[in-house]
Structure formats: structure tokens, C-alpha cells
Known about the structure:
This protein is α/β, with parallel strands linked by helices. It has helices at about 35-50, 80-85, 105-115, 125-140, 165-175, 185-190, 215-220, 225-245, 255-260; strands at about 5, 10, 30, 50-55, 65-70, 95-100, 115-120, 140-145, 175-185, 200-210. The protein has one domain (about 5-260): Glycerol-3-phosphate (1)-acyltransferase (3-Layer(aba) Sandwich).
Amino acid sequence: MPTNNAPGNLAIGSDYDTGDPMMARRVVKVKVGPYYRFAALLIRPILFAITKRDWRGIENIPTRGGAIVAVNHISYADPLVFAHFLFDNGRPPRFLAKSGLFKVPIVKTIILGAGQIPVYRESDGAHHAYQAAVDAVQRGELLGVYPEATLTRDPDIWPMTGKTGVARIALETKAPLIPCAQWGAQEIVGTYSKKIKLWPRTKVTVWAGAPIDLSPWSDKEITVGLLTEVTDHVMATITSMLEEIRGEKAPDQRFDLRKSGLPRTGNFKKRGKRE
């Protein structure tokens, strides 16, 4: 449980399974505002109660300075699971989040107060989200990005092709880009389901990989082709990590939402209803 040390600070030390007995337990003080603090105090005990955690790669996340974490999207529950992993290891994330969340009265107040960034997908407003994300990284924040920009449509829950925003942000800011893979949250809330399973406790796995080497692209002119190439590399890295977590091979061809005929946003299993 968190311990108060000073206004706005939480002392974090988590009883997670790192999967590596040689890895030291990282205990940190996290400086957060009142809204982030409120959300953490509310949500962390629930997550501790309903999950068993396999967290690895903590050492790959910088303890300070601007950085980007890119992760696969498998469940409505996984933003909480992933944020728990980051927060308890000293880096409260700023997520790019769909604009619909910012329309829910109480949720809007909390997530705006916690510095989360609304994304108006498939609209001109997406540029404002991009600039806010760049500004956050340049201020030294940890930015959380879902490159797929929506829950995966892959029938076996593998990562899809990604959108190029994460590549553009990384190349512009020159900040470390850390690939992450997660699995298990879909057992708490199924992909494109809102049915919740609280018991028995669910094993949730989150791994952070080594920062991606962007030097092959960093001095080149930024074009659509280059951004697509970088994004494909990011998604291939995340997929490879997920293969190791799941112990099975992903399809040779990554699911491409643009070619699938499915709507780009919303719950495709309930047409006309937004995510």
C-alpha cells in the first residue's frame, strides 16, 4: 500500500513476480498531482486484489526524462493493467486516450486532471493530440501509446498493423521508444466485451523491452514510407515479445484493419455503437 511522504508523493513498492529472482525490487517515490493520486489510491488496491502480476523489463524504462512506451491493445481493462505496471515502477504515464472517455462527467475530471491526452480519431483534431504528446515528452513525461489506435480486431488477439503517430513522435523528440507487450487483461474483460471477471485472480503479464534503435532512420527525411517502416518495426518487436509470453507463433501476415472492411473505430461486433 502507498505511504504518504510529502504532498503529492507516493512511495511505491509492489509485491509482483518479476520472473527473474536476480532482479532487484524497485521502490520509488512517485510525484503526482491530486487527480492522479486519487485514481491511484482508488484503483491500485482493486488491481492487487484481482490480479497476479508477472512484470519484467523494469530496468528498460528510464527513471527520468521524456520517453515513449508503445504497447499492444487487447482489452478495455489493459490500460489500467499497463498503467499499474508503469506507475508502480516510478513512471506515471500520460496516455493518448480516445476522446469518448473525456465525455463521461466524473471520468473526464479525473483523467484531464491526471494529464491524459484526448485523441479525436479520424478527425482534424488528431493534430492537436499529436502536438500535446510531443510537448509532454519534451517536458520529460512518460508517454503511453497504443500504436494500433484501437482494440485489436485480430481473431486470435495478436497485434495488428500500427498507425504511424508513435514513429513520428519518437523521431521528432528523439526520446527513447520502449516496446512493451501485455497479456492476460482480456481474461478480466474480454476483447470487445464488457463482462468483468474478478475471481479467481487473473495472471497479467507485462514485459518492457530494450529501447528500439532508431538510428537507421533518425537522419533521414521523414516521409510516409519511412514512418510506415519504423511503425512496422515497432509492431514486429511487440509481436515477437508477445510470442514469447504466449509461447506460440503469431500469423505470418499481421492483421491490417485498413484492408479488413471493418470499421476503423467502434465495437465492430455491435455496429453503430462506439468503443
